[in-house]
């Protein structure tokens, strides 16, 4: 039967407009670069078997034309339950504070799971943190285990990944043959991930990534963690706070995931959020001359349904030979809905599809998949299922059917074109993650930011997370788009900067119109 995919936001919205290229942590020679000051790792309370990791000396090197960027690789246990059984590397990048006098190190994560924090920070520093934070902090990005330039999940080469992500099944949508074909494709992909990832798959999880983050904190000499996490980065931050509440410094979780809801409901909640944003887009679209639709919201929605039905029946062929079917068009649509700034291009995309031109749609879908110049500049589409399949317990048949029925009510277009077999059903290892409230008892105040019309991480998730956390403070941005900080809302930005830079904790929850 058709199943709801356990798909969570693939990236924080900034990535929709930032072209990422592979960079990693290769050294860059700069005559003006000087080694950073030596720091003493924080090994307080560390057990003997973890001292080789917490006490390691980090060898920073210049890694960008701007001499304020340093890169390094940090060793962490492959298996945190058996630290002596092997190690992996975490790629780290640091932008030294513009002031030259940092108040500390601010760790960041842009989302995912699977997005490179190294590439994002190097190429979009001002989008991630903004000038007040880069002025006052050494800003640190990293590729979590399994991602990018760290010890990474590896599944397919370009040709095979293209086939897996873009090829259209031969059988009619929803038929038993269609389901069997997709399940076989998922099984082959999962087997390749296992074969090519050198035993890493069982240990790729948000909890293990949070444990790695504590090593990064320690080796940079910080006794507490200052952190700004977006989207999945909020799940990483919440996991850290639950593991190490006494080591939480100033923490901001923006575009929050709710750790208490089951995986099947995560997919439903997200698609409901995208449906609200789609309705807002269509309502806006019909007022523009370049919109391919006219009339009321209901009429525009019917026209959009017809566009999807058309490419589902007769896919459009791109110049590189790939076919644009309804699934890839849905991916393009979702990517554009992350931010209202992308809505003009979405109008161009849908007009193009109506006129038989798939190129704009492939541009959006390729950006989502980190495909660029005929290849992949990251491994997000491989790391993404690796995390989700280990983080989320398998849903039962009754739970899955209930989620599918709810999806059909709240997001009918997504129910038809964003459902199917779940690759996690074919994953070679059982999940280790659990779902439940996170309280982080004893942690310092944690700011949780929610946007009222966030398509990817519904506002209610932020409300719920702030309520679960013993020290949670909710900052509400009234508006459209994914995440709230550094999006032009002065009220939100001022609250975040005052908290991270000056330690000013809001007296109560804040609502920013």
TrEMBL record:
Statement: the UniProt record of this protein carries the keyword 4Fe-4S: no
Domain of life (superkingdom): Bacteria
Keyword Signal attached: yes
Family in the record: Belongs to the peptidase S33 family.
Pfam family of the protein (one): Abhydrolase_4
Domain Peptidase S33 tripeptidyl aminopeptidase-like C-terminal per the UniProt entry, residue ranges: 418-512
Name assigned to this protein: Alpha/beta hydrolase
Any one GO MF annotation of this record: hydrolase activity
């Amino acid at each position: 039967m058709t199943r709801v995919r356990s798909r969570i936001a693939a990236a924080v919205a900034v990535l929709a407009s930032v072209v990422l290229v592979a960079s990693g942590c290769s050294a860059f020679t700069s005559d003006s670069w000087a080694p950073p000051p030596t720091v003493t790792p924080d090994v307080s309370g560390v057990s003997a078997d973890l001292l080789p990791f917490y006490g390691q000396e980090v060898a920073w090197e210049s890694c960008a034309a701007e001499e304020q960027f340093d890169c390094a690789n940090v060793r962490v246990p492959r298996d945190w339950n058996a630290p002596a059984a092997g190690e992996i590397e975490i790629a780290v990048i640091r932008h030294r504070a513009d002031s030259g006098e940092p108040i500390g190190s601010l760790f960041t994560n842009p989302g995912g799971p699977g997005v490179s924090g190294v590439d994002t920070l190097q190429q979009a520093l001002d989008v991630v943190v903004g000038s007040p934070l880069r002025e006052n902090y050494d800003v640190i990005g990293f590729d979590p285990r399994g991602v990018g330039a760290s010890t990474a999940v590896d599944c397919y080469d370009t040709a095979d990944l293209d086939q897996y992500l873009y090829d259209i099944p031969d059988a009619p949508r929803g038929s038993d043959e269609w389901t069997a074909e997709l399940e076989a494709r998922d099984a082959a992909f999962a087997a390749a991930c296992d074969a090519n990832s050198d035993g890493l798959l069982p240990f790729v999880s948000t909890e293990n990534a949070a444990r790695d983050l504590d090593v990064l904190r320690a080796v940079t000499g910080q006794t507490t963690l200052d952190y700004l996490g977006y989207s999945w980065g909020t799940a990483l931050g919440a996991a850290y706070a639950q593991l190490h509440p006494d080591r939480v410094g100033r923490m901001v979780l923006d575009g929050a995931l709710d750790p208490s809801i089951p995986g099947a409901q995560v997919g439903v909640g997200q698609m409901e959020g995208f449906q609200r944003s789609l309705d807002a887009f269509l309502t806006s679209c019909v007022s523009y001359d370049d919109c391919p639709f006219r009339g009321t919201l209901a009429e525009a929605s019917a026209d959009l349904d017809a566009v999807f039905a058309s490419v589902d029946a007769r896919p459009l062929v791109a110049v590189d030979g790939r076919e644009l079917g309804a699934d890839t068009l849905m991916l393009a649509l979702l990517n554009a809905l992350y931010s209202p700034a992308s809505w003009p291009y979405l109008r161009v995309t849908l007009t193009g599809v109506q006129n038989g031109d798939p190129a704009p749609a492939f541009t959006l879908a390729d950006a989502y998949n980190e495909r660029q110049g005929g290849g992949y500049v990251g491994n997000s589409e491989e790391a993404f299922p690796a995390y989700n399949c280990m983080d989320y317990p398998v849903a039962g048949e009754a739970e899955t059917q209930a989620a599918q029925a709810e999806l059909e009510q709240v997001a009918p277009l997504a129910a038809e074109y964003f459902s199917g077999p779940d690759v996690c059903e074919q994953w070679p290892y059982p999940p280790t993650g659990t779902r439940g409230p996170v309280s982080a008892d004893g942690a310092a105040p944690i700011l949780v930011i929610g946007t009222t019309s966030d398509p990817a991480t519904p506002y209610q998730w932020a409300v719920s997370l702030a309520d679960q956390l013993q020290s949670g403070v909710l900052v509400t941005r009234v508006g459209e788009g994914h995440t709230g900080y550094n999006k032009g809302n002065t009220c939100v930005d001022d609250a975040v900067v005052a908290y991270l830079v000056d330690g000013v904790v809001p007296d109560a929850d804040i609502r920013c119109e």
